[in-house]
Amino acid sequence: MLDVNGISVNYGDIQALWNISFSVAKGQLVALIGANGAGKTTTLKSLCGLIPTASGTIHYDGKLVTGMPVHKVVDLGITLVPEGRQLFPKMTVEENLLVGAYLKRAHGKRAQTLKRIYEIFPRLEERRTQTAETLSGGEQQMVAIGRALMQDPQVIMFDEPSLGLAPIMVQEVFKVIQELHKQGLTIFLVEQNVHQTLKVADYCYVMENGRIVGQGTGKDLEADESIREAYLGF
Ligand SMILES: Nc1ncnc2c1ncn2[C@@H]1O[C@H](COP(=O)(O)OP(=O)(O)OP(=O)(O)O)[C@@H](O)[C@H]1O
User: Is the CB–ligand 1 distance for residue 47 below 6 Å?
Assistant: First the structure.
């Protein structure tokens, strides 16, 4: 469904991605793990058209996405839940969610999608009139996921959704991601919580210094000694 072939990305004179290739099949949960500064966020931004690629191609459902503006990428059904959530703090939960449904593909079904999101996150329905800034970190992450779902995506990409959350909320976020996977969404998950990620991912890529240096099923990587040493600490 998503095919990334040999992309490179530069920030001025600094090369951040070197000839990255990977693919995400329909309905799969594929993860990208790596340390701080490895290039994970840069990879996501280039997939959404937020930053240009210097070389290589990105195809989605057979269509060339490379060079497309962000709103066109979103209209194809690719959605990002950004790191740090990026909600509108003074707007209510429901207003933040509705922001997600501004494009044509999602606008017509927004009432129906909102209902579905409140079924997934009953807590957000309880707090629908509360401003985003007054929510806990975990609740804000739920709003960010809900807002992405309002775009009616085919592929949802997460940038470190568990970052900065209390352990119980980390579990909650992973539960939601697994539930969305079960419902058939295609998921590309960028995470530093390697332990949890290897448990839920169908397939996983490992990134270091802007390069893909390993790949395999969650189980394979969990059993790999160098991965255990570098990312799992045992
Ligand atoms: N706007 C920018 N200008 C210059 N360099 C950048 C910019 N954004 C990222 N970089 C550099 O590109 C490299 C990859 O950064 P990126 O944010 O993609 O890593 P990451 O794996 O997502 O890290 P983290 O887990 O810390 O978010 C880093 O060396 C970073 O300093």
Answer: no
Segments forming the whole domain that contains residue 107 = 91-153
In a domain, 103, yes or no: yes
Of 8, 9, 11, 158, best ligand 1 pocket probe by most atoms within 8 Å of the beta carbon: 11
Beta carbon of 111 within 6 Å of any ligand 1 atom: no
> 227 in a domain, yes or no?
no
Distance CA 48, CA 61 (A): 14
Q: How confident is the model over 125-162, as pLDDT tens digits?
A: 999 999 999 999 999 999 999 999 999 999 999 999 99
Which residue's C-alpha comes closest to atom 23 of ligand 1? 37
The pLDDT tens digits of the residues spanning 156-178 come to: 999 999 998 989 999 999 999 99
Determine if the pTM surpasses 0.90.
yes
Count how many domains the chain has: 1
Which tokens in the block code for residue 19?
Answer: 């000839």
38 burial via Cβ count (<10 Å: 0-12, 13-18, 19+) = buried
